[in-house]
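Entry 12.
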Amino acid sequence: MNKRHIVVFSGGSAANNLVDVFGKVAEDKGCSLSYVIPISDNGGSSSELIRVFGGPGIGDVRSRLVRLIPEEPSIPETTAIKTLFNHRLSSSPSLARIEWLDIVEGRHLLWTSISSEKRELIRSFLNTINLEIVKRLRPSSSFNFQSASVGNLFLTGARLFTGSFESAIYLLGAITGVPNNVNVIPAINSNFSHHISASLKDGTIITGQNSISHPSAPSAPAPIPTPTPQPSTFGLTFSAEPESTSQLGEETDLSPTTSHLRTLSKELSEHEAIEDANLPGSLPTLRKQYITFHKSHTEDLPSRIERIWYINPYGQEIRPAANPKVLASIGDASAVVYSIGSLYTSIVPCLILRDVGKVIAGGVKYKILILNGSLDRETRAVGDGGFTARDFIAAVADACVSSRSSSTGRTRAREEEYREFVSHVIHLQGEGTPRVEKGELGRLGIECVRIYGRKREGGEEGDGDGGMIYDGVALGQALEAIIGGPKRFSDRSRRNTLGISGVGG
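Predicted 3D structure (tokens):
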């Protein structure tokens, strides 16, 4: 069967810079295109929606849907709708609440240029979420509108009204004119929250995507290593950002573990007094607000990330099933692309879901890793030289093997298995980019393709300093050449002579 489908695994903001590249490749190849997006985000305005309503982390899904709205300068309504769903309320909670009411009641300037029929349709779902916010108001808990995303509020309102996250995604795409040949698929199709934990090589366990990737500013202190959990305290040992012993009163001679457990016990008692969507006894770190955070200039981890897994609200490991549409899309794909972005909080959470690795290894011909143009908090650690291309590939392969661990009993891929999950690596070369072991990877059957990019400027988006930015034309040419046939690249730069601006890496 001649497969004409491309699947892209990605998160939100970083890969948004490549949407036009992926779209053009799919168009040139006559392919449909699917984006698989994780739902484990618990930072930003998503954290407040999860706290009050439960449900999946929708920020990355909303970000991709809005990015896919066609740019039509000749149609003001398209631009106005895109601006509306991209809009964030004021950073002042009181001003944000007033602004929200102006939007719900149709008085805000954002409604200018939006036709009455679409305005009233959108407002109906904003009114739905507004009613639910009022219904859930309690003396101990009220919704914080600070920096809330209008798009996130719309998706949540649509999900609550229809009872289906995928229906909410379809509705937003239909209203905004997202192309019919492009699908945005949540990695897990669920009305419940799904959180992740990370174990570091030094034994530390960090709970929650926000704490793993970009702790709330100022950066959270490094978590302390935790011992092997005992049954009586299993749910308590999995926590991010433990407080120092100096915050526990006069008992400063307590061991770090004892102080940590006492702090958690105190936090559990405090959170039990708050009536929200969290189950009694849920880990405190999963119940907190992480509305304000910075994605850049975060502290390095104390040790490398070793493994990512999903947890229930009490910190116990679970193995969720992948969205059936994810498995079906991969099964129909001629190419799978692991996009740029956060390796362990954007890509890996999609790959560790049950049977994803099996389907990727089973019939996808081209498995392309686009290497990040710089290292971030997840791919470097204190005293560590940072990830190389081989480390990125190993993380992808380990995640895929882990997804079928019920049948293999393994969570680590053997070197000879890397080729089953990554066939090509597209990368940049320059200051701050990950080192690429071309010879070693070649012996493993993985082809390295070096393309043209430019140096990241100081004010451009990215985690940390330095690094390179992908050129859109060169990246598109590389993807089309790989997917288009057996032609192999030599290790040479593919330069853009058209003067097209670069895209983030």
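Annotation: The chain has 19 helices and 14 strands. The chain has three domains: 5-38+320-503, 48-184, 220-285.
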